[in-house]
Amino acid sequence: MYKGKARAYTNIALIKYWGKKDAQLILPMNNSLSLTLDAFYTETSVTFSPEYTQDTFTLDNDKQDEKATAKVSRFLDLARKKAGISYYANVESQNFVPTAAGLASSASGLAALAKACNDALQLGLSDKELSQLARRGSGSACRSIFGGFVEWEKGYSDDTSFAQVIPSDAWENELAMIFILINDQKKDVSSRDGMQRTVETSSFYDAWLDAAATDLQTAKQAIAKKDFAALGEVTEANGLKMHATTLAATPPFTYWSPESLRAMNCVRTIRQAGLPCYFTMDAGPNVKVLCQKKDVPAILDKLKQEFSPEQLTSASAGKGAVSLEMEVSK
């Protein structure tokens, strides 16, 4: 019997990943850049045993259906192949983040599972190799292996697509992100389906790829110079461009809700009043606000005039995936 348990934190992309050039290997169409945060995370344990007759997957104390378990099994097959074993496994995962609501629960979940498998099976993977493995479960999971600012190199093969830390002299510790939780329910169009529809049908997609490459360089320069305004501006602009591609898809769709628009306008109003802050959104209605840690109390006070305290959560920079326990018995 082989057991491992790990925790991984969610990451929020400042420069978005949107579109795959290889769906099986999960190779992205463009590089992306994220900030790992400490507020939301997933803890996952995995047990491989010769006594099990099938893979089982429990999420937030609910046994998952065949479709969800099959996805986990495909990922477990990658770990089993590396270890040279065929044991079935039991996976138990607890999300301290709403699932499938645009808060990157798949990133933290698959990063935690990758780390737990590495520990349980004593694979001895480097962080780079662990990032490559996590990517095969969920693209953005490769970034949650690391803390702070992280760039996912798109690559052109399984071995060349991985995430790595962007040196920043710990500048990320001066930054924060406030989450405005508009809706924590499961979204109508999944990230996977929305991404594929956009790549295949959006007339804006080629322009998005060109802009994303330029935005990435702008963001990296801003991090190198510790220029918060420049980083915030490109973060906000890049997120808007990504969402514009969905409106030009066939059929068109959007992850925005009326409350999302209200939140974005609220952030603009706060910024115009002299508090620097910038919004971004992933594939869901919730709005994230990039700001400086010193400004969090003042920005929260402003947001509480429009949203309930239960809708607001602040986060600081988080660390990479960590092992919680490991046990190997035969």
From TrEMBL:
InterPro entries named among the record's database cross-references: GHMP_kinase_C_sf (IPR036554), Mev_decarb (IPR005935), Mev_diP_decarb (IPR029765), MVD-like_N (IPR053859), Mvd1_C (IPR041431), Ribosomal_Su5_D2-typ_SF (IPR020568), Ribsml_uS5_D2-typ_fold_subgr (IPR014721)
Record region (Disordered): 310-330
E.C. number: 4.1.1.33
One Pfam family hit: MDD_C
UniProt entry tagged with the keyword Plastid: no
Domain (Mvd1 C-terminal): residue spans on this chain: 179-315
Alphabetic keyword roster: ATP-binding, Lipid biosynthesis, Lipid metabolism, Lyase, Nucleotide-binding
Residues of the Diphosphomevalonate decarboxylase-like N-terminal domain: 8-163
Family membership noted in the UniProt record: Belongs to the diphosphomevalonate decarboxylase family.
Matches recorded under NCBIfam families: mevDPdecarb
Protein name, as recorded: diphosphomevalonate decarboxylase
Source organism: Candidatus Enterococcus willemsii
Phylogenetic classification of the source organism: Bacteria, Bacillati, Bacillota, Bacilli, Lactobacillales
